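dude i think i finally got it to work??
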Amino acid sequence: MQRILVNQTSIAETRAENVDSAPLEAGQVRLALESFALTSNNVTYAAAGFDIGYWQFFPSGTEGWGIVPVWGTAKVVESRSDVLEVGTRLYGFYPMADEVVITPSAAQGGFVDIAEHRAKLPLIYNQYTPVRSGSDADDHLRAILQPLLATSFLLFDWLQDNAYFGAQQIIIGSASSKTGLGLCKYLAEPADRAYRIVGLTSAKNRAFVEGLGACDSVLTYDQIDDIAQVPSVYVDMSGNSDVKMALHTHLGDSLKHSSAVGLSHWDHFAPTQKLAGPKPEFFFAPSQVAKRRAEWGPGEIEKQITAAWKRIAADASTWMNVQVYRGIAAAEAPYLALVTGQAAPTTGVIIRP
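look at this
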């Protein structure tokens, strides 16, 4: 088995290694990963690995080193389970490795890993969905966009659920990220919307965000003082504390809600900051899923998420170029590019072990 380990206290440090595959116990299956995506999500998983528990999904057994989860597609290659046959392909949450062992239990729409160490972790990450054999392109788009755009849509749903906190403008930090651009696009869909959409991004990515056509205005981080001082919501995809400080200071009490979503700028994140206006609150997508499941019944929010991400994926070829890397060791370079902020927003990264 090949895998990538990440230093849990210095997440830009990685190493590839080979370890012996564990024999299966009764009820377990072995999955061989066919492909997985690397996105800004994976940086957040590493940066928030202790706080939210992402290191717990796939324990490495090596002190100080963890395995970052990824989204992708795998095939059952060995089974001692009555519910999963060899050859079944599953989409879901995997380690950055070429194989994984799970303990599947049948559930609505697919399977759940009921391994003891995952029992207290969010259900959405323990679910695996059967997928038919299709084109590589379909697998790649699903792995890259579905997790990111699911978060985008759940953010949109949550904002709707809270009447946009009475905001006249919604400001999206790191609007060039795929989660950010997804939220901008969903926010732009209602014909009767009463808010403006303001995208914040770096100077090098401004033209890209403008070209997507979802924002009413696109500003760079050094133009925060140009943002109108009207009732606002800030949705922060990057965790950049300097940007957050500047925006909170500028808007003050005009800021009605500040939402923290991602940590792609983990190296500019300060966990304790005294800010003007409301205290930032962390948005945890699985909580919104759980709320909607309770309100709407099982399966409905999943249907809406699927329809939503496919709407944006339909024209992804016009703004995203998929780059495929082969071999687990090849994951280190694009992961490092994401961690250090060097990855282009127009690129989608796929690893084929």
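The longest strand covers residues 69-79.
im so relieved honestly
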